[in-house]
Design a protein that fits this description.
By secondary structure, the chain is of the alpha/beta class. It folds into two domains: 18-213, Alpha-Beta Complex (2-enoyl-CoA Hydratase, Chain A, domain 1); 217-263. Helices cover 41% and strands 14% of the residues. It contains eleven helices and nine strands. It has helices at 42-57, 79-82, 100-108, 127-131, 156-162, 168-177, 183-189, 201-213, 217-230, 235-250, 253-263, and strands at residues 18-23, 26-31, 63-68, 114-118, 122-123, 135-139, 143-145, 181-182, 194-196. The strands form two sheets. The chain has a six-stranded mixed sheet with strand order 1-2-3-4-6-9, with helices on both faces.
Length: 271
C-alpha cells in the first residue's frame, strides 16, 4: 500500500535561527544569527532542513534564495556546540527532520534553482551550503576560507560539494593551506558564479531569481533531478538513462505548452 506523502506546513512554527519569506514564486531563507556570525548550530541545521523540505514540496515555490543578516554570511559550524558546550538558543518548535549529515543532501537534492546571496565572509562549514547551491553570487568584498586545518580539523563534509565545483588542485590547495580566497578568486576557481559590487547584489540576485521563475517549473525539477542522478554514472550508463529522461520530458505538460506557445508566437503559461 502506498504511503501518503507528508504535507509540511509553516503554520504555528517558530523559527529561531532563520527567517522565511515567499514573494512571486521566490522563497527566501535568511540566516538570522548575526550575533554569532550566523554560525550553524543544531537549531539552525534543523530549521534549514525543514525549510528546504517545505520549499521542495511547494509547487508554488520555483526558486530559493539563501541570504544572511549581518556582516558575515556564515562562520561555519558553531564551535561552542561542536566542542560540547550547551546550545543556549531556545524557543524553536520546528519538528526535527534530520541532522548535520542531512543538510548537504537537502541542498543537493532540492531540485530547484537555489541562489546563495553572499553579502560577507563565508567560512568553514558554510561552504557546504555555497557548494551545493545551483548559483552563488557574492559581493566583491566577500571572502571564502576553509581554515579548519589551522585548528587541527579537516573539512571532511565540505569536500563532498567542494570538488564538484572547484578543480582538484585548486580545491586541495584551498583546504590544505587554509588561506582565504577573494570573491574574484572564488569566481575564477568556480566556487561562485560571479562577484558584483555590494550595492548591486540585491538587484543581481533578484534579476536572476525572477528570470528562473519564468521557466517551466516541472521541467526544471526533472532536469535538476536527472543531473544529480547521472552525475556519478559512467558515461555508458548515463546516456541510456538520459534518453529515458528526454523521452519523458517531450511528453510532459511543460514541453507541450512550450512548443505550442512557440508555434503560436506567444509566451508560455506555466501553471
Amino acid at each position: 500500500m502506498t504511503q501518503p506523502v507528508e504535507a509540511l506546513s509553516l503554520d504555528g512554527l517558530r523559527f529561531e535561527t532563520i527567517t522565511l519569506a515567499e514573494v512571486d514564486h521566490v522563497f527566501t531563507i535568511t540566516l538570522n544569527r548575526p550575533h554569532r556570525k550566523n554560525a550553524i548550530n543544531t537549531a539552525m541545521t534543523n530549521e534549514l532542513i525543514y525549510a528546504l523540505d517545505y520549499a521542495k514540496q511547494e509547487r508554488s515555490i520555483r526558486v530559493v534564495v539563501l541570504a544572511a543578516e549581518g556582516d558575515v554570511f556564515c562562520a561555519g559550524g558553531d564551535l561552542r556546540t561542536m566542542s560540547g558546550s550547551a546550545d543556549k538558543d531556545g524557543g524553536s518548535n520546528v519538528p526535527s527532520r534530520g541532522g548535520a549529515d542531512d543538510l548537504s543532501l537537502r541542498f543537493y537534492h532540492l531540485n530547484k534553482p537555489l541562489i546563495a546571496k553572499i553579502q560577507g565572509p563565508v567560512l568553514a562549514g558554510a561552504l557546504l551550503m555555497v557548494c551545493n547551491a545551483t548559483h552563488a553570487i557574492a559581493a566583491d568584498h566577500a571572502t571564502f576560507s576553509a581554515p579548519e586545518i589551522k585548528r587541527g580539523i579537516w573539512p571532511f563534509m565540505v569536500m563532498g560539494g567542494l570538488f564538484r565545483v572547484m578543480p582538484k588542485r585548486a580545491g586541495l590547495d584551498f583546504i590544505m593551506r587554509g588561506e582565504p580566497l577573494t570573491a574574484a578568486q572564488a569566481a575564477t576557481s568556480g566556487l561562485i558564479n560571479e562577484a558584483v559590487a555590494p550595492d548591486d547584489l540585491d538587484a543581481r540576485v533578484a534579476d536572476l531569481a525572477q528570470q528562473m521563475t519564468g521557466y517551466a517549473p516541472d521541467t526544471m525539477r526533472a532536469g535538476l533531478s536527472a543531473y544529480n542522478m547521472q552525475d556519478d554514472m559512467p558515461f555508458d550508463e548515463a546516456l541510456p538513462f538520459l534518453r529515458t529522461q528526454i523521452d519523458a520530458c517531450l511528453q510532459s505538460k511543460d514541453a507541450k505548452e512550450g512548443i505550442t506557445a512557440f508555434l503560436e508566437k506567444r509566451e508560455p503559461n506555466w501553471d
